[in-house]
User: Which sequence fits this backbone?
């Protein structure tokens, strides 16, 4: 059963703590992405990776970091430098340009 | 800023009606477009896509129209059902963007029975 998994579904953290969101795919896709979605808003690109050991900043990379050590995994760390981290985070993957992106179920992060 | 946007943030229709959701894009170099459906609390799901060498593509109960002259994309849903209630996003891609998509803000479709 191929797809993208994100864990956990809900995550709560105290302000000042770093937190890492997990994203795994078994679709054998080269490219992976992280988006942030705020209530009533569209998706904003945080980081993306087109191949293992390489990644690029998206539109709102400040306060976030990523790694891509394996093809299947693209974890996102929300650091304490991110001023407004509470949001819904979505991970996606795609095989190549010109093909759809497949999305995971999302992680809702709440920082208090 | 964003190069993809939707004309209306909300659309309310009756069950059985046809729905039309619109999207304007500003990057004339975009050559691939996708429509996604997102239900509350879930990740977006692929509905249909279209490449710039086409002006129409049909799926099951859905049709996407692309007008490159005015840089306009629309999604038509036939015989709208309550299960179609969701937020609909268009997204675009160009060669210069690599594999990254640019998403619009979305239109919330509400279907009443």
Assistant:
């Amino acid at each position: 059963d191929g797809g993208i998994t994100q864990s956990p579904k809900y995550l709560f953290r105290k302000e000042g703590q770093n937190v890492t969101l997990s994203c795994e795919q078994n679709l054998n896709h080269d490219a992976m992405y992280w988006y942030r979605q705020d209530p009533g808003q569209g998706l904003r690109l945080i980081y993306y990776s087109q191949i293992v050991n390489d990644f690029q900043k998206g539109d709102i990379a400040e306060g976030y970091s990523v790694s891509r050590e394996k093809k299947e995994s693209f974890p996102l760390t929300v650091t304490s430098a991110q001023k407004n981290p509470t949001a819904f985070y979505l991970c996606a993957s795609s095989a190549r340009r010109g093909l759809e992106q497949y999305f995971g179920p999302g992680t809702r992060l709440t920082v208090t | 800023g964003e190069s993809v946007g939707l004309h209306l943030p909300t659309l309310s229709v009756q069950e059985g009606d046809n729905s039309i959701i619109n999207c304007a894009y500003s990057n004339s170099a975009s050559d691939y477009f996708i429509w996604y459906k997102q239900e509350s609390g879930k990740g977006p799901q692929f509905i249909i896509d279209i490449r710039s060498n086409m002006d129409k593509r049909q799926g099951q109960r859905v049709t996407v129209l692309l007008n490159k002259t005015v840089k306009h994309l629309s999604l038509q849903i036939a015989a709208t059902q309550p299960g179609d209630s969701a937020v609909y996003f268009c997204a675009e891609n160009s060669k210069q963007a690599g594999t990254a998509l640019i998403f619009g803000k979305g239109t919330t479709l509400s279907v009443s029975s």
Observations:
- Residues 41 and 86 of chain B are 11 Å apart (CA to CA).
- The mean pLDDT of chain B is 91.
